[in-house]
TrEMBL record:
<feature type="transmembrane region" description="Helical">
    <location>
        <begin position="21"/>
        <end position="41"/>
    </location>
</feature>
<keyword id="KW-0472">Membrane</keyword>
<feature type="domain" description="Oxidoreductase molybdopterin-binding">
    <location>
        <begin position="102"/>
        <end position="247"/>
    </location>
</feature>
<dbReference type="Pfam" id="PF00174">
    <property type="entry name" value="Oxidored_molyb"/>
</dbReference>
<keyword id="KW-1133">Transmembrane helix</keyword>
<dbReference type="InterPro" id="IPR000572">
    <property type="entry name" value="OxRdtase_Mopterin-bd_dom"/>
</dbReference>
<protein>
    <submittedName>
        <fullName>Molybdopterin-dependent oxidoreductase</fullName>
    </submittedName>
</protein>
<keyword id="KW-0812">Transmembrane</keyword>
<dbReference type="InterPro" id="IPR036374">
    <property type="entry name" value="OxRdtase_Mopterin-bd_sf"/>
</dbReference>
C-alpha cells in the first residue's frame, strides 16, 4: 500500500521531528486547559466575605466536602479520650481574652438564647447551676501548638437544650456564640454542639471558672481546637447560615475539629 510504504521511508530525523511535533501539540493543549481552569477558578465568585475568609467557591466546595467526610467519620458516639482527675493541670494555661477581658459583672448575669423563631430567652446562672453537672478531664488543644490535660465542670449543652425545650432549634445547621460585648464569636456545626462532651462550663478544677478563663460560663467543646471554646458566653443563637466566626474570618479553618 502506498501510505504504508511511505511511512517506512521516514528517516530517523523525520521521526524525531514528528514526535516532537506531537509532544508539543499535547503540551500546548494541556497548557491551554490548565490556563482555562485557572481562569475559571480565578473568576469564580468568592464565598461570602467574613464567613469563610474569601476562598473561591469551587475551593470552598472542596473544603466543605472534606469537612463532611470528617464529620461523618467521627459520629456522635465517638468520644474524646478522658483522664483521671489527678492528671489534670493545677496551673491551667491561659490564652487570649478577646471579648472577655477584665472582670464581668456577675450579679444578674444572663445568658441570652435567640431561638430560630426569633423568641429570646434570658437564662440566669442559678438556673444553669441547678441542673445536673457533668465533669470532664481531657486534653485541651490550642492551634498554636500547646495542649494540656484540664478538668472542667458544667452543664452538658445537650442537657441545656432539652431542659429549656430547645430541641426543635437543633434542626438548624449551626449554633453561634458571642461574648456579651460581641468582641469574640464562634460558629459551630450542630453535630459538634450537641456532642455529649460539649459543656457550658462554670467550674474549672472544681471551683468557679476564674475571670480570665471565661467566668461565669464558657464553652468547653473537646471535639474542637481551643479557638472554638469561647470564654464568657453572652448569647447563643441557632442558624441555618454559618454564624460569623472570629478566627475563620482571619483565615483559620471554620470547622477546626480535631
Ligand atoms: N472570649 C474569648 N474566648 C476565647 C479566646 C479569646 O480570645 N476570647 N481565645 C480562645 C483560644 S485561642 C483558646 S486556646 C482558649 C484558651 O482558653 P484559656 O485562656 O482558658 O486557656 O480560649 C478560646 N476562647
Ligand atoms: Mo488557641
Amino acid at each position: 500500500m502506498e501510505t504504508k510504504h511511505k511511512k517506512k521511508e521516514l528517516t530517523v530525523d523525520q521521526k524525531i521531528k514528528r514526535r516532537n511535533f506531537i509532544s508539543f501539540g499535547i503540551f500546548a493543549v494541556l497548557s491551554g486547559a490548565a490556563y482555562e481552569g485557572w481562569q475559571w477558578l480565578y473568576h469564580s465568585p468568592a464565598e461570602e466575605q467574613g464567613v469563610t475568609a474569601g476562598a473561591h467557591k469551587p475551593l470552598r466546595r472542596a473544603l466543605n466536602k472534606t469537612e463532611l467526610f470528617f464529620r461523618n467519620f467521627f459520629s456522635n458516639n465517638h468520644l474524646v479520650k478522658t483522664y483521671p482527675k489527678e492528671r489534670a493541670a493545677k496551673n491551667v494555661r491561659h490564652n487570649s481574652d478577646i471579648g472577655s477581658g477584665g472582670t464581668p459583672n456577675l450579679d444578674n448575669y444572663m445568658l441570652q438564647v435567640k431561638r430560630l423563631s426569633g423568641e429570646v430567652l434570658n437564662i440566669s446562672m442559678d438556673q444553669i447551676r441547678a441542673l445536673p453537672k457533668t465533669e470532664i478531664v481531657y486534653d485541651f488543644k490550642c492551634v498554636e501548638g500547646w495542649d494540656q490535660i484540664q478538668y472542667w465542670g458544667g452543664l452538658k449543652f445537650i442537657d441545656f437544650i432539652e431542659h429549656f425545650n430547645l430541641a426543635g432549634d437543633t434542626r438548624a445547621a449551626y449554633v453561634g456564640l458571642t461574648t456579651p460585648d460581641k468582641g469574640y464569636y464562634v460558629g459551630l456545626d450542630m453535630p459538634s454542639a450537641v456532642h455529649p462532651q460539649t459543656i457550658l462550663a462554670y467550674e474549672m478544677n472544681g471551683k468557679p471558672v476564674p475571670a480570665n478563663h471565661g467566668a461565669p460560663v464558657r464553652l468547653i467543646i473537646p471535639v474542637k481546637y481551643g479557638i472554638k471554646n469561647l470564654k464568657r458566653i453572652g448569647s447563643i443563637n441557632f442558624s441555618n447560615k454559618r454564624p460569623p466566626d472570629y478566627w475563620a474570618e482571619r483565615g483559620y479553618d471554620y470547622y477546626s475539629g480535631l
